[in-house]
Input
Amino acid sequence: MDRKLKLQVKSLSRVFTGASGQEVVALQDVNLEVRESEFVMIVGPSGCGKTSLINIIGGLDDATSGEVLLDGKAVSGPGADRGMVFQGYSLFPWLTVQKNIEFGLKMKKVSSAERAKQAQRYIELVGLKGFENALPRQLSGGMKQRVAIARTLANEPEVLLMDEPFGALDAQTRVVMQELLGEISEKTGTTILFITHDIDEAVLLGDRIYVMSRRPGTVRDVLTVNIPGERTHNSLVLPEFVSVKKQIMDMLWQESNDAAMGR
Output
């Protein structure tokens, strides 16, 4: 059965004007779709406009042309219907784990009892039970990112937008967080759009992968990922995994080669 279309990016372009007045086309005619409960990845060469794209979807920047639709309605600014998780943790250093997670709910005037209940649910979901009263300075990088994810999910956004959230983590912690996010996605059915430069991460987590061209960034191809069974680090050696990874690497190599040759 087809899933409901949740998020659409239609003919979107973004042009920046430099200090000298010269125009730089960051994104050009980008078209993208995300369906309900789908986990969609975006990969592409450095500087292809991936972060600009997710900032526009999140309402933090404006497109020069084109539009973003959520449930068929145009996105015109930030909103609680889109939760964002960045590489930086953006936690309040003076608040405990629980109070950080409760913060958005408090802004929504949710009762203290309901806030505590919701926070506890997501604390358990991200594996932080027992750390409710810890401050951010007492946590590792991976634990801080778990808090950031829990805080965003507690607000129950329609779409979770993630901009290289594991980019600053060490390799071992990154694998743990990837598998955790995969489990969270399965349990909650949250619709996720995730930017990464890590091809393994894209194939491990994604239902579909949008591969972008070099600047001006546009969609070069869209790949569907079909990997049997539960996805863990052991999936990286499966033929289905290797096949998709090779397709992406070949496309990105071609983009890099064309840039070097001036094509």
